[in-house]
Amino acid sequence: MPGIIIVGAGIVGLTLGQAFKSQKIPFTILERDASADVREQGWAITLHWALPLLEEMLPQRLIAQIEKCQVNAEVAEDDPGDFKLINLEDCSEISNTPSGKRWRVNRGKLRLALLDGLDDSIRWNQHVEGVEQLQDHAKVQCLDGSSHIAHVVIGTDGSKSAIRRFLCPEKHAVTPLPYRMLGVGSHLTEDQVAPIRSIDRLLFQGIEPKTGNFLYCSLLEAATKETASHVVQFNVSWPQSSSKDEMFSDNTSRLAALKLRARGFAPCLRNAIESIVEGTPVTEIGLADWEFVHWDNPGRVTLAGDAAHPMTMFRGEAANHGIQDAYDLWKNLKLVCYSGDNMRDAIQDYESKMTKRAVDAILLSRQACEDAHHYPVDKSSPLVTARRLPPQCA
To answer: Which domains does the chain have, with CATH numbers?
Structure first.
């Protein structure tokens, strides 16, 4: 059976690994980090239309572990699954888009769940330096001088993918968008979080009509008997005024800028953001996407997840598209392993489907980003239209 190399131990790479493991398909994951806890794993992600795909790919034991990664399992039991957009000046509702069943999961906990049982299949501290495609296999060269041979290489190594740089050497870089974003996870008391959770118990978005400032607010961790506070994510973005827009020299200046842009928000939101204590880490998030480029491919190297289609967060679909990628690859490569299908045909079939879906998804997310900072928002905007399985995947 063919051996598979997955480059990148993020959510998509680990999902693929678990799916291959369940089918006894040989694989190795190469990860640039020295261990699983080297970097922060972001905040939370919403699994919605891709949930049935996960449930088909992964063993029930693992699905049960993933379900426990939800930021608040009690809310999930009767969650209406709405994506709300509000007016940040008074918290009035602009739109309310149903999504159906969804799990809002802590990204770090999800990654730990997906790492379970893969210890022997992951090679840490492997910085990929180059890839060579030959007639019947591919060779991955790493910075430490080691090399790895496989029948196919799948790049799941994120928006700055080394594998995409190999496939698209002249047009691999993402394009920054003219917006700035700051994000923070803040501890709030029950009194502080109550008016926020009255808007939505899991997450909502908002726009300030006069300024174009945008807020993404999400519960990260609910209070427990051991922890008296809730952890809430605040991401604030705004149109970049010029190429000489303000630069943030340190965390103090980032926190000050975040609070400054919340001054016109409704009191419950403004007060929560103004209460963030000095020293709380604030991250600047680069908003960028990729002008999709079709690559010539002999069928030995491909891309999935953010490596294949970097997009903005404004539709909340990136992880779902990554899981769809994993699902399609898993189905095609099972046929190669067990039915003798041709590897080149399997990869090209996957890429044909993924490309059509990815081009649309990138453009929709970019338009959603634009619309998020320009009021009023049309009801046909991708910022507020339904999140559902793409038609070509149905």
So the answer is: 4-51+103-175+290-373 (3.50.50.60), 178-286 (3.30.9.60)
Alpha carbon distance 237, 258 (integer Å): 9
Q: What is the pLDDT of residues 256-308, one digit of tens each?
A: 999 999 999 999 999 999 999 999 999 999 999 999 999 987 889 999 999 99
| Cα–Cα distance measured from residue 164 to residue 134, given in angstroms and rounded to the nearest whole number | 17
| Tens-digit pLDDT profile for residues 332-351 | 999 998 888 899 999 999 99
pTM, to two decimals: 0.95
Nearest 5°: the CA angle 208, 365, 18 is 125
Gap between the Cα atoms of 28 and 32, Å rounded: 13
Sign of the CA dihedral with 352 first, then 353, 356, and 359 last: negative
Quick one: 106 exposed, middle or buried, by C-beta within 10 A (0-12, 13-18, 19+)?
Answer: buried
Answer yes or no: are the C-beta atoms of 365 and 382 closer than 8 Å.
yes
Q: Distance between CA atoms of 160 and 310, rounded to whole angstroms? A: 9
Please report where in the chains the tokens 């890429």 appear, as a residue.
Answer: 351
Triad 176, 181, 183: Cα angle to 5°: 135
